[in-house]
């Protein structure tokens, strides 16, 4: 999935672009401004404080050596000004001592800042590795299925949140899960880890989608039992990580809406099991329609079912594209409060397009159109498009 890579690239581009060029120019500009003001104003005016300001600004823009160079330049500029005016007195010496002191303190603070930033970069690198190991980037194709998708967490500082996806080639065909955990943001990632790890293991072993869903149900029920308080009230333990309490669901409300897909070995048909999730959309011959399935309770609530709902089997045409998504897409609101009409927007995109869309083209459209519709998203968002690959590309 290119979105994790693009999120990382966007974050790293932001880090590389800080500080902006105009901010880098401020310290030398203040030094030059001090010289100019001293030359165009009467001798009774003194602008030495601007030199101190240039050194302080350098803390946030330059490395320690640059801060020291800025302080040295400020001291040299002050000495040069006073020497040209032949006015080297006690005030000049006092200001030079002040500038030297400010320079030394600023260099020390800059060293502390650099060490803190280096520590933060290492922590971020570890966090990014863990997140990408959990939600691995999607390849362009798995077996006979072409894939494209994008993912955006509600927390801008995180790569993952409460939505999930996984694609797995298995002896039974390519299997896919797209889901949405109760709750959002970082607090929901524990449940995401449980569902994805269970899916990756059980998808290779369970012969049918209902049995695969049963296995995930059991894992979530074990999680729910483990997070209950010793008194048995079902309350989640108090938070000790500093994350907002509302991001994680209470123990008795630990569930995941999900849709599970299983493509046949030649991708001529797909079996669909919907566990309380958003309905799949299919684009066939430039017509967008809903894949009607039997809805059921979400994963994690299987103990309330008398039996697993059956999986729907749908025959796929060579150009059919399935679109799985979370409610973060359809519940995104524009400034007027209107929800994002995914099906209608996809149909309009297909009508305006010159040919049958591709999975990557659809995902690019959804990503950019959703950002246009709702610039500020309040929920995690995932959308994945899947299409049978042409025989010559398998």
Automatic annotation (TrEMBL):
Residues 145-388 form the PPM-type phosphatase domain. Keywords: Hydrolase, Membrane, Transmembrane, Transmembrane helix. The chain crosses the membrane at residues 21-37, 96-114. Residues 225-247 are annotated as: Disordered. GO terms for molecular function: phosphatase activity. The keyword ATP-binding does not apply. This is Serine/threonine-protein phosphatase. Residues 232-247 have a biased composition (Low complexity).
